[in-house]
Amino acid sequence: MTPEELRADLTRSGLNLIGQALSIFDADLRLAVSNRQYQAMFALPDELVQPGTSFEETIRQLVHRGEYGPQDDPEAAVASRVEQARTFQPHYFERQRANGRWIAVEGAPLSQGGWITVYTDITEIKRQESLLRARSEELSEQVLDHAERLAAANRELAATNAALQEAQHVLMRTEARTRQVTEMVPAHIAHLDTDYRYTFSNRQQPMVFPGSIGDVIGSTVEEALGAQAFATLRPWIDRALAGESQVFEMTHKPSGRRIRIALTPDRIGKGAYVLSTDVSAEVQAREALSHASKRSLAAQLTSGMAHDFGNLLTIILGLQGRLAAMPLPAEAADDVQATLAAARRGAALLERLAKISGPREMSLQPVELPPLLREVVALARPSLGDGVTLGLSVELPETSLLLDPGALQDSLLNLILNANAAMAGPGHIALTASTSGEWIEITVADTGPGFSDEALIRATEPFFSTKKNQGSGLGLSMVYDQTKLVGGTMRLDNGPDGARVTLRLPRRPVTRQMVLLVEDDDMIRTDIRSQLTGLGHAVIEAASLSEAQAMTDLPGLTMILSDIQLGDGLGLDLVADRLPVVLMTSMPPGDPLRNDAPGPVLTKPFTTSSLATALAEASKDSA
């Protein structure tokens, strides 16, 4: 017996326990299910109680038997009742059958089409009513009529309640489906009342606003998102509550995400509907496209003129260098030094253009951040203007982190020197660093005039500058690119005293590993061993699968780095062991063996940065 047949059999068994006769016809006027009482009450033959029997055949049987009384035209009576069934309406009535018995008939439509009808034998109730009328001469005719009407009304009320319960059941199923669909949408869908309180939510708010509460129904926006976010949202919400649809974007400062919010007034009730979507990837793609077009221009410029321009600068620097070595009048010597400074600045600009237009790679290394930040401060202080102070505040654990030290140092020096130029006089620059969840936050803030509205929007665009022909417009763009390259974000805003730039970098703690390196090529194994030891890890080597399997229980071993395809087997066989495994291969993407790997695969040849990232992620996943 199939599961469907078993369920149908169980359904019929349950219906047979009901005292009343019951039948259900579908939208095509065919019998879907009935119970034994239905067949017994109307003495129907077996072929008329089989699923699929047409309603018309059943009615024809009952009409010709006289169930509905004498009929001048039986076929017309059948057609009339079939037509009524096609436009089925909920009903309750009582009728006396040809055999003298009374039945109550109550029917209700089904949400998926068709109807259910329940037949109750009320002969005994009718007899009691007749006896009561015949034997109770002391009761007035009016009381008896009222009693009969009340009994009929009660039965009709019961039928109505059954129809209402069915309607409520349908409504509950519809609401459950609607909630299930909304909870599958990768966005937060909600409804707010006029007190900024959530009356509906699909429970996706933490996905869009990390750190917010999930069950927000009954809470206000301020309670769910915090006072700062509510202050940003309130003017938009007020306009939506006043009847104006709103679509806008905001930055969720705790996470750095860019959120697009649509507010639609509730035209029926009071309040507004909310649709919040994380568009960070879209915004980054737009910015990347804009930057790419300008980098392409820079590449064309540098490729076309870098050689000739470099030669000219070399000649100018050589000639001016000779002049500088000669005894010259003071005024001429100053001119020579100014020419040398301008030529050197041109060479530096050419180098920066080449960097921004050329390919960029990150170089992750184990770095202790506090000493690096102190070194940045030491390098920057001699270049600061008169009366400008530079302070450092570090709240970081003294542990190594995977960072690109050169790029980070360049970025911070660029931000500090930008702040120094923006103040154009005495002031203070504050360099602070702390951890925030899975991120490191490094902030450079100054006491200058702050960013203009245009700068807040365009500052990361290549060649955009507010320095009036004194800047290349490449500094913040390079900082932005270097930060994005390591998986971080950059935020520009104005603090209480001036401009503020915050870099958020992924916090990748360096855990010193004892790595079992499994590689059957001696030269490749030697090269990868150098990469691992350069990252500070201890290494044990194996040249085959069998050799590696004999070493996986060595004391202190914490990780396995293995080629997928070994001379005597597959590195995939090591995945079942207790240790985290990072796999590597020179096979192209899409190869079946690569597809069998349980996680990301390093493609040979790989950089030390890629290796460091893979080991850190594997260590994090196994923690």
Automatic annotation (TrEMBL):
Residue ranges of coiled coil: 122-177
Span of domain Histidine kinase: 304-509
Keyword Phosphoprotein recorded: yes
Catalytic activity: ATP + protein L-histidine = ADP + protein N-phospho-L-histidine
GO molecular function: protein histidine kinase activity
Enzyme Commission (EC) number: 2.7.13.3
The protein's name: histidine kinase
Organism per entry: Paracoccus methylarcula
Keywords of this entry: Coiled coil, Kinase, Phosphoprotein, Transferase
First-level EC class: transferase
Chain ranges passing through the membrane: none
SUPFAM superfamilies noted in UniProt: ATPase domain of HSP90 chaperone/DNA topoisomerase II/histidine kinase (SSF55874), CheY-like (SSF52172), PYP-like sensor domain (PAS domain) (SSF55785)
Domain Response regulatory: 514-619
Modification type 4-aspartylphosphate: residues: D563
PANTHER family for this protein: SENSOR HISTIDINE KINASE, TWO-COMPONENT SENSOR PPRA
A biological process from GO: phosphorelay signal transduction system
